[in-house]
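Write out the 3D structure for:
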Amino acid sequence: MDKAGDPVNAEGGGNLAEPATVGALLSAATALPVGRLDAEVLLAALLRLPRAQLIAFEERAVDPLTAAMFQAGLERLAAGEPLAYVTGVKEFWSLPVTVAPGVLVPRPETELLVELCLARLGPEARRVADLGTGSGAIALALSRERPAWRIVATDQSADALDIARANCRRLGAANVELRQGSWCEPLVTERFDAIVSNPPYIAPGDPALAALRHEPVEALVAADQGFADLFAIAACARTHLLPGGLLLLEHGAGQSPKLMEHLAGLGYRDPASHRDLAGHDRVVSAVWP
């Protein structure tokens, strides 16, 4: 921005009403605390181009409206808003998942839940529940890999289910059924081969929340030092898992020992901790007798 508040053209003087190029806009982005990669992804999304093509043709002209939208997006990124909210999409399990401020941004580490579920259950017809589905990312990934499965995805947020529903339609996930309600409540009396969840598990007041301030707090924070929702799911899942059914719960740093102990106390067999690619304990699995 110049002192009058007008976005500055990176090629020297003027504003974004004048012609700009890809290279000039990306160079201008360095004036803000925004990473080069994020700037490239943002501009590629606005131009509807693969990022590699964007980089290869930095002399490509950019129309004034797109340049202005790029500037506005950079300012949102500089304010700490997640890139996925600015572009409206986040890749998860190689799927372009639509996201918005009403749902969490899917994280790569959550793909471990998908990997473990796929490894434990074969491609034949199965029934799986995804509790607290948010954008639907986990259910969508399972649907893509296991078309014979029937997946029930629940969330108490109507706004989240609207986003998940749009994702299911766009990605053709016909075997995913969305239901509104808290945790196991929408499952009624049904039983499943597996129940998976990435619930809120951050303790109130945790310093990590500062970096997550743009995401819905109700999808992040749980009472009882972050264990309240993990324990609630563990309890209700017992009446909705088939004998030998699999429970998979994503959790936070340092929570796996207490969570595994709690699961054993509830009667689950073989509680185990699984690490993500960064080497952090990320998911606990257990089997219902």
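The chain is about 35% helix and 20% strand.
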